[in-house]
User: Which sequence fits this backbone?
């Protein structure tokens, strides 16, 4: 009897109590002297059922969740013949190895996350057992142009949100005459509400390294950097371990696998700045300076790190590459739409029944994702909107839920594909307050280099604060819209250019809520302080200085208290 | 700052170059490793903060002096990134996440309640040096929203009550140690 028990111990699993479950399992196995392997894996994506425990006996598999230390004994008794007091049916998530009986997982197509929650991320052997580094070996036998051609044919586009064709980007850098060339992986997942990169790195770090190695070969880069958030300590640890293993295995270093190719890889820990997701700001940060963007062109593909040609992609983009090489560009392109191939991972959170990481083929509708996979809203609540792309993105209302998940289709709604943050909001969320939340964030994270963003985001936040406090009138709304346009057109980098998106989309789809705040001095969701006088903490703190004094008392502010 | 409160006048008396003495050995060890690497400034500051828990003024001065940066550049980097702290943190650093998922799950109410209970605002430390309160943009554990982190331990699915109970437990534990 070959038995393995897997426990998901990513950041999300640990926060849900996976470590205590692991100890309980170890104690049980030790007490019964059972020859069972306990595997600590990454996150399967089904975060809403964590801690997850998968018991595999001779190819059969049962997935349990949420498992508490108290549930360990009854669950394991079932498998190891001790009878016991039995288990409740709702502890079981899935009874099949392919998980096709669990709707949350059945509708997904997992490529970049295929091994997350399946292998032990600290073990190179596990990765190798699942065709690890075979794509890189295959790529080494191909000329660089052929790899670029394959990626282009696969219609892979930048998963950081902008959607620039990856093959084209690689070709630009490849054709640059200068050496050395650099490649950078942007793992500075700054969007609040997003954890795709974290899950992929914690669950399957070697896939990222393999994708970067293939890119390095295609571009002719000899040095690589992974810029990862210091807020993700487990991810940083997983990467460090993976790089050491890859060096020992011989795929990183000099004369890799006898091909004559040299490649070194360095981890740079970001120190917490949202603007460093912008590529030129990220480069400045790697150079050890303040992470402020600069005007483009020249693009990093011509003049990047230290002035040399540099290719920057996001984690998910690199992670897609090994499967493209192994399965062919036609297979990858076929998964998606005519303009964009493959899959996209989303961090599905908020008022959703099944939150977690989902990976779906591009072209699936939002409704399929939210209702069929996400299970719709949490019970008793009514769906109101879905927010994509974090502070740079927008809200999509109920009647547009049949929009396909595709760069162009989403852009037409005013939202963006974004890096993968997907937050479902219900009728207890006030859209004006929600918009104000994003502006609080962008205002705080604006680097201050260019005026439209530095002052504009602050002014926009001021307008929104006044609206939520019932102190605005119709002209404020017009001025806010005008300001949005100025900030969008005038800002230096993507942070400022996209900062008005949350305002513009909510004004477009939820204008009635703005008007209720302005004309009736009423917050339909009973969130804003003007309505029932509840304190709104977000109005205090570091941003209380904006536009308003600190009015946290229960009094409804009257017109005489209005400040300008 | 410092043990005794300097008088207003004393602060302006020239007391010699504070950097004439070599840096303390633990700082020298960090700086020595990165000498001649202009791109390592952020890494150096991260290591200094790991060691001291924050960036002491002298640490910044020595970094500039030893690695050959203008002090303005070191200070510029130290104040640009959210990670760096210029004042010593309490024994426990309490971080309340105000990411999107946490926000729609009412993390702001948790923050308000904790502020009231501890009597401090954001980025402040309790007078006994036990707790520092911070907010973070996102911890990446959104499916457990709202999230609170105390030092390295993550607490998921928080409510104002649960947060206050956890903090009160820490305070009780610390005062228990004090009386023993």
Assistant:
């Amino acid at each position: 009897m070959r038995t393995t028990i897997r426990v998901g111990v990513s950041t999300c699993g640990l926060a849900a109590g996976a470590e205590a479950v692991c100890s309980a399992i170890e104690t049980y196995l030790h007490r019964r002297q059972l020859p069972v392997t306990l595997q600590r894996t990454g996150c399967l994506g089904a975060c809403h059922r964590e801690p997850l425990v998968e018991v595999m006996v001779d190819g059969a598999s049962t997935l349990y969740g949420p498992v508490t230390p108290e549930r360990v004994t009854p669950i394991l008794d079932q498998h190891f013949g001790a009878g016991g007091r039995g288990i409740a049916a709702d502890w079981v998530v899935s009874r099949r190895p392919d998980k096709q009986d669990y709707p949350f997982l059945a509708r997904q197509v997992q490529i970049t996350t295929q091994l997350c929650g399946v292998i032990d991320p600290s073990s190179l052997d596990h990765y190798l057992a699942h065709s690890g580094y075979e794509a890189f070996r295959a790529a080494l036998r191909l000329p660089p142009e052929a790899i670029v051609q394959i990626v282009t044919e696969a219609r892979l586009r930048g998963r950081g949100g902008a959607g620039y064709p990856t093959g084209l980007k690689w070709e630009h850098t490849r054709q640059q005459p200068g050496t050395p060339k650099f490649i950078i992986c942007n793992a500075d997942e700054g969007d609040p509400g997003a954890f795709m990169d974290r899950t992929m790195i914690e669950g399957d770090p070697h896939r990222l390294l393999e994708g970067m190695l293939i890119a390095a070969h295609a571009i002719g880069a000899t040095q690589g950097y992974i810029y990862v958030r210091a807020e993700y300590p487990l991810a940083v640890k997983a990467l460090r371990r993976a790089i050491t293993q890859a060096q020992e295995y011989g795929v990183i270093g000099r004369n890799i696998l006898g091909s004559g190719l040299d490649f070194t890889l360095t981890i740079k820990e970001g120190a917490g700045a949202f603007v460093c997701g912008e590529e030129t700001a990220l480069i400045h940060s790697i150079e050890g300076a303040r992470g402020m963007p600069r005007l483009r062109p020249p693009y990093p593909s011509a003049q990047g790190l230290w002035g040399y040609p540099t290719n920057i992609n996001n984690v998910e983009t690199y992670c897609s590459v090994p499967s493209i090489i192994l399965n062919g560009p036609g297979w990858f392109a076929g998964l998606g739409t005519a303009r964009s191939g493959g899959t996209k991972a989303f961090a599905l959170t908020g008022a959703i029944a099944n939150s977690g990481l989902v990976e779906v083929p591009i072209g699936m509708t939002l409704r399929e994702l939210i209702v069929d996979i996400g299970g719709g809203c949490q019970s008793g609540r009514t769906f109101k909107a879905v927010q994509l792309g974090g502070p740079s993105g927008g809200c999509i209302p109920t009647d547009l839920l049949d929009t396909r998940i595709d760069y162009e289709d989403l852009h037409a709604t005013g939202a963006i594909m974004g890096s993968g943050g997907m937050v479902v909001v219900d009728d207890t969320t006030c859209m004006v307050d929600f918009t104000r939340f994003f502006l609080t964030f962008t205002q705080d994270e604006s680097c201050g280099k260019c005026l439209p963003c530095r002052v504009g985001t602050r002014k926009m936040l001021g307008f929104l604060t006044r609206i939520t406090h019932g102190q605005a009138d119709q002209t404020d709304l017009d001025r806010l819209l005008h300001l949005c346009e100025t900030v969008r057109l005038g800002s230096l980098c993507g942070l400022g250019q996209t900062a008005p998106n949350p305002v513009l989309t909510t004004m477009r789809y939820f204008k009635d809520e703005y008007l209720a705040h302005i004309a009736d001095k009423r917050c339909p969701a009973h969130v804003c302080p003007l309505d029932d006088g509840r304190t709104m903490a977000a109005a205090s703190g570091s941003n209380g200085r904006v536009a308003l004094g600190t009015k946290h008392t229960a009094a409804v502010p009257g017109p005489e208290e209005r400040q300008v | 700052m410092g043990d005794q409160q300097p008088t207003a006048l004393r602060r302006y008396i020239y007391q010699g170059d504070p950097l004439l003495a070599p840096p303390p050995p633990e700082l020298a060890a960090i700086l020595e490793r990165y000498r001649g690497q202009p791109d390592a400034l952020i890494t150096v500051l991260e290591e200094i903060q790991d060691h001291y828990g924050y960036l002491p003024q002298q640490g910044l001065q020595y970094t500039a002096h030893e690695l050959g940066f203008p002090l303005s550049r070191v200070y510029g980097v130290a104040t640009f990134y959210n990670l760096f702290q210029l004042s010593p943190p309490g024994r426990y650093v309490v971080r309340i996440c105000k990411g999107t998922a946490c926000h729609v799950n009412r993390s702001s109410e948790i923050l308000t309640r904790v502020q009231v209970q501890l009597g401090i605002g954001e980025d402040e430390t309790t007078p006994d040096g036990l707790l520092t309160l911070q907010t973070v943009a996102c911890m990446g554990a959104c499916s457990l929203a709202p999230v609170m982190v105390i030092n390295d331990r993550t607490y998921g699915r928080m409510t104002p009550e649960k947060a206050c109970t956890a903090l009160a437990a820490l305070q009780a534990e610390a005062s228990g140690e004090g009386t023993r």
Notes: Residues 92-179 of chain B form a domain with the Glutaredoxin fold (CATH 3.40.30.10). The CA atoms of residues 64 and 70 of chain B lie 6 Å apart. Chain B touches chain A through 47 residues (CB under 8 Å). Strands of chain B lie at 92-97, 124-125, 131-136, 148-150, 153-155.
